[in-house]
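Batch manifest line 361
LIGAND: adenosine-5'-triphosphate
JOB: complex structure
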Amino acid sequence: MDEMYTFQKIIKIFGSDVSRSALIKAESSGLIPTACRSGGKSNPRRAWTIDVLPQIGERYGFMKKPQSPMVVTIFTTKGGVLKSTLALNLGRAAALHNIKTCIVGLDMQCDITNALGYQVDLDDAENLEAAITRLGSVYGLADFADSKLPLDDIVIQSDIPTLFFIPETPDLVALERAISNRTMRDFWLRDKVIAPLQQKFDLVIIDCPPNWNLLISNALMACDALISPLECKINNFRNYKAFKTYLENFKKDTRRDFDHIFVPTKFISTRKLSSEIRMWYLSNVSGCTNGAIRESVQGEEAIASHLSLPEYAPSSLVADEMREIVQEVWNKILNTSKRKEIFSSLDAISTRESVEITTRV
Ligand SMILES: Nc1ncnc2c1ncn2[C@@H]1O[C@H](COP(=O)(O)OP(=O)(O)OP(=O)(O)O)[C@@H](O)[C@H]1O
Ligand SMILES: [Mg+2]
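JOB STATUS: finished
ARTIFACT:
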């Protein structure tokens, strides 16, 4: 049976202070969709299905649509630090606020594709032949690059009507090799995939594997903002400086500039070392969020259930924290979006002026 979203769950997911009576009024005046009723006529209990949630989120939630379509890459050179977890939480939260979102996974391990609940039934196939047949029906970026399928045909809708994704396949390795022989090889993703997606989506999230390869350069060339999780553990602390230098060199070499947001993850409040590392990040890493994702069993369970933390465990502390982090990250992305708009209007003015001067001369 489809998951139902009660009043209590809705105010938790959207961090909203809307009252029950205001929501009922909005429902009866048609401002939000009609809820399903359970509990009998004398005590009807309202609950909404996920397909209408984005209309409620847009009205009562905390995320506003960006002025122009935004592209966010999630990457760092450390594995298992919650990159895909962040992609899922940000993507589902945005979609639930009626922000039309597409997640593009670039990891041949297919973690974000699995987290989105796609083809998870493969292991239940009756036999190998049936599993291979089902596997053969999964298409991704490599099939598009080979001109086997148009882009629209590899974009799949998730359980939320405003959330889409391009499934990852093991052929991503072949894709990397294929684009390495093309001219403008660092721009293949931006020009062929992301630019057309920006015509249809408000937000594109690119979830990356931890090893730097050509697909990562493509993802960095295509993004407006980069999000890097920073694990509150000593190994990531050691890794941070090397990663930062790598990235600065990349920006210099490619003359690219994008905003960089850091999110501390796997924080353990009872460990002194973990707390000190988090404090160090806060004081020394520009673009670091105040909030940190705590290490938690609910966090693991949410991913396994293909849900964001606030959807999976709405009343938990970790869900509140995740919602606040998504809000903080989103505010930074909206600032980037505003700056992008200002720059593009300044560009338009200077182009117009130079055309006018040329015409006069
Ligand atoms: N809050 C949490 N606390 C602890 N573990 C978590 C939490 N959220 C998710 N996990 C688990 O951590 C593991 C790694 O998370 P995730 O896949 O997001 O990392 P990643 O950085 O994308 O990894 P990779 O580098 O392999 O792509 C997952 O198995 C997930 O179940
Ligand atoms: Mg991952």
